[in-house]
């Protein structure tokens, strides 16, 4: 008989139930924090128990990880390779082509040998299904224990987990895990198979096992608490009363003691305190204006005839005018004339067909993740809303403690978005991920899917592969921001390559999509937040939580822009027309890159300007310094961000020469 496989969460749960019976209680929260509490008998008061915290172990980071540790030994005349595969959360993948452990194994050892280093076809000699739901009784029965803490205040004793498995050579197999607190690193330090006891011994040092002391009840009696309360009240009375008498009556010495007048004035005193508090709330400090939107405001207020706005990344046609995509115009017309259209609320997670089409657009229609039903999405307030909802979700269900790493430089709004939900932001060196030498294990990392803002420099496919390796080895959570699909290369699929590559490698990740740029729907706020997860069950759970968050944040998303995108993405003819419109925009931008570079070279502007044409997407990171930018703004009425980023869409055949000459001027004259 085979019982169904039980997951890591399930075995934790069964453990918790067992311990409850033993007089221990534990809790596990959504972040995978397992807390142990023991009831301690108080000899004097028989019925009175108090909770004593033993340990809090953050198991979340050690779940869902497939560990594969391979050891090669010279055993003349052959070489023996021992491969130990461990996944605490779910059965190991079955490789049908090769000999592997049976289905339902969680910890498996495969021993092979080969004749020489060059031997490409090693022979399997032993397969040990060490732990899993496959022993004779069919029970994958974990036993969890906490090693008694050596001293009372130390709450970080190792966590011992024993897992039973199948049989090898008619002997029951077993894995003994010891999780030991190590705040510095996360790795398996010992991995030995004990032949006598048929046990695989694993010592795993991890920050996840570092106990945290939360509850320390000193056992103060109710009477003592009451006396302390009275003393505090008395101190407050005499303290406030004396302060009041001093301020109001300029009293000194014994006159400072509160007297009857104090009580007469007490209601006024309270009302004064309230007034003071309300006033201090009202005095909100003045915030600085937004760097990008303020440029547009200044540009609009400028009356100079040749003014140029290279600030916000919004497409303009060659006449410098905002461009409504012809396909968008057509669909809008159809929507207006559609008698069935109403202005009812959309569902909380948005228009279902829009979400499905968005998923297909970014992952590719034949993505295995879609087929396996492990993708879920929420319609959002454009790309910013997707970033926000993704950040909010991770701060609740991933961890509030881990930082998110942003490329240096990045879009000016990324940091505030993540800080707003309480996530700490840190930087990673964008151009040189290899020597950034940061200790970022377990963090979230934000990646620009294509057309990096502000640099316009994207990793090559080989560089993406190296980035994926780092992300895998450091166990980071990839957070893709995709605001420019179709703008980087002019090809929607090519611009989605990085995301699709990560999905293919099996990462769990999220993607923020914006239709502001590629549909020109800036003010319509059409966007989508997509999660790719490890299975359909996780997708359903994430979806339910997204709906809950969305409901309290915006209730439901706006309909008009999403309807336009929905119609275009779901209609082959309109889609083809959109691709054409997109191509028109991206090729005009490309032409402007060539034109700007040519003009700069023609006017002998010092420096190399190849990066203008090498960079892709909406922006160019010119390399101009803040003082040069200031002169461009003040003297030449050309608006761009202080970091030297220019929106290529702000250039046109009629202003490119003016912009190039102005750049030439500042490069030659401003340090
Ligand atoms: N992500 C990145 C990388 C972006 O550059 C932008 C827009 C967004 C998300 C959000 O766009 P959305 O909310 O409008 O969909 N960046 C602009 C505008 C174009 C801005 O700052 O809001 C920019 O000029 O950088």
UniProtKB/TrEMBL annotation:
Molecular function as annotated in GO: L-aspartate:2-oxoglutarate aminotransferase activity; pyridoxal phosphate binding
Primary location: membrane
UniProt-listed PROSITE patterns: AA_TRANSFER_CLASS_1, MRH
Entry membrane topology: Single-pass type I membrane protein; Single-pass membrane protein
Transmembrane segments: 226-246
Keywords: Aminotransferase, Autophagy, Cytoplasmic vesicle, Disulfide bond, Golgi apparatus, Membrane, Mitochondrion, Pyridoxal phosphate, Signal, Transferase, Transmembrane, Transmembrane helix
Family named by the database record: Belongs to the class-I pyridoxal-phosphate-dependent aminotransferase family. Belongs to the ATG27 family.
Record-given protein name: Aspartate aminotransferase
The organism's taxonomic lineage, starting at the top: Eukaryota, Fungi, Fungi incertae sedis, Mucoromycota, Glomeromycotina
């Amino acid at each position: 008989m085979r019982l169904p496989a039980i997951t890591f969460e399930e075995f934790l749960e069964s453990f918790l139930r067992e311990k409850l019976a033993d007089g221990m209680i534990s809790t596990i929260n959504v972040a995978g924090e397992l807390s142990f509490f023991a009831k301690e008998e108080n000899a004097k008061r028989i019925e009175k128990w108090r909770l004593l915290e033993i340990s809090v172990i953050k198991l979340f980071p050690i779940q869902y990880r497939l560990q594969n540790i391979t050891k090669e030994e010279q055993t003349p005349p052959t070489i023996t390779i021992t491969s130990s595969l461990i996944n605490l959360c779910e059965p190991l993948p079955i490789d049908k082509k090769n000999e592997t452990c049976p289905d339902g194994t969680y910890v498996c050892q495969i021993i092979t040998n080969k004749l020489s280093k060059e031997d490409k076809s090693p022979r399997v000699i032993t397969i040990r299904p060490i732990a899993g739901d496959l022993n004779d009784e069919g029970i994958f029965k974990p036993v969890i224990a906490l090693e008694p803490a050596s001293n009372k205040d130390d709450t970080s004793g190792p966590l011992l987990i024993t897992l039973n498995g199948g049989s090898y050579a008619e002997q029951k197999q077993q894995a003994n895990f010891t999780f030991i607190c190590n705040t510095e690193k996360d790795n398996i330090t010992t991995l030995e198979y004990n032949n006598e006891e048929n046990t695989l011994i694993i010592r795993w040092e991890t920050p996840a096992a570092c106990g945290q002391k939360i509850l320390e009840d000193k056992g103060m009696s109710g009477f003592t608490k009451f006396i302390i309360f009275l003393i505090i009240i008395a101190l407050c009375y005499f303290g406030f009363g004396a302060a009041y008498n001093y301020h109001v009556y300029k009293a000194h010495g014994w006159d400072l003691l509160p007297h009857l007048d104090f009580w007469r004035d007490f209601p006024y005193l309270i009302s004064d305190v309230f007034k003071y508090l309300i006033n201090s709330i009202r005095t909100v400090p003045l915030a600085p204006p937004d760097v990008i939107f303020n440029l547009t405001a200044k540009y609009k207020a400028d009356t100079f005839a040749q003014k140029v706005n290279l600030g916000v990344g919004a497409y303009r046609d060659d006449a410098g005018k905002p461009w409504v995509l012809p396909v968008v115009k057509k669909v809008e017309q159809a929507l207006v004339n559609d008698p069935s259209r109403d202005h009812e609320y959309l569902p909380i997670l948005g228009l279902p067909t829009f979400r499905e089409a968005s998923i297909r657009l970014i992952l590719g229609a034949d993505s295995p993740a879609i087929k396996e039903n492990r993708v879920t999405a929420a319609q959002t307030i454009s790309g910013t809303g997707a970033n926000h909802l993704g950040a909010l979700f991770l701060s609740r269900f991933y961890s509030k403690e881990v930082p998110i790493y942003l490329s240096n430089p990045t879009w000016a709004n990324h940091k505030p978005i993540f800080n707003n939900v309480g996530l700490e932001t840190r930087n990673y060196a964008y151009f040189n991920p290899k020597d950034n030498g940061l200790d970022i294990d377990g963090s979230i990392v934000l990646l620009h899917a294509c057309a990096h803002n502000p640099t316009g420099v994207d990793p090559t496919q080989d560089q993406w592969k190296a980035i994926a390796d780092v992300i895998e080895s450091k166990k980071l959570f990839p957070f893709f921001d995709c605001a420019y699909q179709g703008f980087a290369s002019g090809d929607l699929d090519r611009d989605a390559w990085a995301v699709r590559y990560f999905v293919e490698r099996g990462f769990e990740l999220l993607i923020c999509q914006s239709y502001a740029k590629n549909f020109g729907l800036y003010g319509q706020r059409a966007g989508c937040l997509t999660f790719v997860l490890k299975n359909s069950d996780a997708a359903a759970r994430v979806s339910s939580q997204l709906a809950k968050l969305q409901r309290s944040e915006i209730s439901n998303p706006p309909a008009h822009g999403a309807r336009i995108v929905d119609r275009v993405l779901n209609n082959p003819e309109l889609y083809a027309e959109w691709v054409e419109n997109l191509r028109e925009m991206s090729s005009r931008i490309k032409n402007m890159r060539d034109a700007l570079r040519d003009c700069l070279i023609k006017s002998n502007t010092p420096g190399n300007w190849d990066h203008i044409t090498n960079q892709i997407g909406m922006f160019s990171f010119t390399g101009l310094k803040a003082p040069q930018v200031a002169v461009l703004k003040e003297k030449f009425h050309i608006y761009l961000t202080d970091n030297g980023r220019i929106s290529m869409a702000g250039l046109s055949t009629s202003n490119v020469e003016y912009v190039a000459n102005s750049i030439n001027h500042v490069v030659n004259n401003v340090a």
